[in-house]
């Protein structure tokens, strides 16, 4: 073991300093199979299935990389807290900004630019079809 | 056999994590905001602008899928480099670091061909909201790939001499994070049409 990090954390001592290296090729093979499934899903032409497969598999793949390659599960616990806090703040950002971006009109306002962009984009693409 | 040389950042561990790895986690946390903010903005606009789906139909799914395969494979090499470094096999670690970097450069070459084709088709940064996001997000990600690949090559020189082996894990963490970003960019930019 090359890492000589001083363990000061007691129960946290079983950490990424002492990683058990599993069968990484097997993990990679599963990731590739998942990639193939998500790509095949894109060619089915069924929109809900395509999106479900693509984003569901993306979450699974990200989890597998974080757990098996980054060893987040055996890292000091507060690293996990740090990453989860970042995700929570991102969720707050999304929730705070989404109404302004995703709605194009409200009680006393209209986002004409967004409406025009949609109209222009649809017409433009209509010409290409 | 004498113990491999290592930098002070890998000797100190005030928080229970060697300082070098601690810094890597902080970099990843800050990167989560950079990419997370961009991706959140993209998702919001994408849901609010149905015409973006038509623009997205011009991206090359096969090229995106191939690049995903390349990055997943390079992530495998990165973790194998970490395994070799833990076994104090500096030469093995250096070999896998170079293979990881090679994967990064292959990714950039494919991206280069892809963008050249799209620009020739007339889809440039100013062609609309979708294309602005597409080039910004994918471009920023490509810059991270380039930086990671260069750092891998620099670290490989030391690793081959059994010097600073714990750094291999740090650059590996960064590389896996870049891989995770692409795992989400692929469905967002290439599959959701």
The succession of helices and strands of chain B, N to C, reads: HHHHHH
- Using CB atoms under 8 Å apart, which protein chain pair has the greatest interface? A-B, 64 and 65 residues
Distance between the termini of chain B: 58 Å
Structural class of chain B: mainly alpha
Q: Please give the oligomerization state of what you see.
A: heterodimer
Number of helices of chain A: 4
Biggest pleated-sheet summary of chain A: none
Question: Helix amount of chain B, in percent?
Answer: over 70%
What is CATH's topology name of chain B?
Four Helix Bundle (Hemerythrin (Met), subunit A)
Number of domains of chain B: 1
What radius of gyration of chain B results from the CA coordinates?
19 Å
Distance between the termini of chain A: 61 Å
Unreliable stretches of chain A (pLDDT < 50, length at least 5) are 1-14
What's the number of extended β-strand segments of chain B?
0
- The DSSP helix count of chain B reads 6
Strand content of chain A: under 5%
Largest sheet of chain B: none
Mean pLDDT of chain A: 82
The domain count of chain A comes to 2
Mean pLDDT of chain B: 93
Describe this structure in words.
Chain A is mainly α and 129 residues long. Helix content of chain A is 66%, strand content 0%. Chain A has helices spanning 24-42, 47-69, 77-102, 112-128. Chain A starts with 23 loop residues before the first helix and ends with a helix. Chain B is mainly alpha-helical. Chain B has a single domain, classed as Cytochrome c oxidase, subunit III, four-helix bundle (Four Helix Bundle (Hemerythrin (Met), subunit A), Up-down Bundle), CATH 1.20.120.80. Chain B has helices at 19-48, 51-56, 61-86, 90-120, 129-160, 166-191. In chain B, helix 1 (19-48) runs parallel beside helix 6, helix 3 packs antiparallel against helix 4 (90-120) and helix 5 (129-160) runs antiparallel to helix 6. Chain B is elongated, with a radius of gyration of 19 Å. Chain B starts with 18 loop residues before the first helix and ends with a helix. At the A-B interface, helix 1, helix 2, helix 3 and helix 4 of A face helix 1, helix 2, helix 3 and helix 6 of B.
